[in-house]
Amino acid sequence: MTEVAFHVNVPDLLGYACRLIRKGYLLGMSMLVVGDARQVALLNKQLWSMRSVDFVPHCLGSEEHATVVRSAVVLTDDEAQGQARGFDVLVNLSGNMPSAYASFDKIFEVVSVADADLEAARQRWRAYLQAGLAPKRHEIQP
Q1: pLDDT per residue as tens digits for the range 22-60
Q2: How far apart are CA 46 and CA 42, in angstroms?
Q3: CB atoms within 10 A of CB 27
Q4: In the chain, what is the greatest distance between 2 CA atoms, to the nearest angstrom?
Q5: Is the pTM of this model over 0.90?
Q6: In whole angstroms, what is the distance from residue 104 CA to residue 88 CA?
Q7: Any coiled-coil ranges, and where (predicted)?
Q8: Which residues, 6 or more positions from 20, have their beta carbon under 8 angstroms from its beta carbon?
């Protein structure tokens, strides 16, 4: 059964996502990271600018197929790009409920402090409950 964890009240969404992705990568997890096009572009830039000892090899979902299938971490604004390939983890930065949530072992919902993000997260929480999952909440302290 898919484990769902909401990381809530994140003051620096992309910085937190970088740390979460790095931790998952170091644990050997393959990760699909979904956000809007702007988030993906900024996250890609932040991941490339991490210190060399913290670097996480990754690619964009729009890169060549051969690159995407060999990458442990794929950043995309289109969740469907990851459905053809099995990933262990989905890191969801978007406000949308992932359509293929059951195909992941874990889902990390990263939610900022913005009211709109919190409301969208509440809706996703209810949708996960209706799907028979038991999401967990991790309150991020500033």
Answers
A1: 999 999 999 999 999 999 999 999 999 988 888 999 999
A2: 6
A3: 10
A4: 43
A5: yes
A6: 5
A7: none
A8: 7, 91, 108, 110
> Within its chain, how far is the Cα of 11 from the centroid?
16
Residue 118, H or E segment: helix 115-130
What single DSSP character describes residue 45?
A: H
Q: Tell me how far apart the terminal alpha carbons of the chain are, to the nearest angstrom.
A: 31
CATH number for the domain spanning 96: value is 3.40.50.10110
DSSP string, 66-107: HHHHH-SEEEES-GGGGTTS--SEEEE-SSSPPTTGGG-SEE
Give CA–CA dist 89/87, Å, rounded. Answer: 6
Whole-angstrom distance, CA of residue 101 vs CA of residue 107: 7
- Looking at the 3D structure of the chain, how many domains does it have? 1
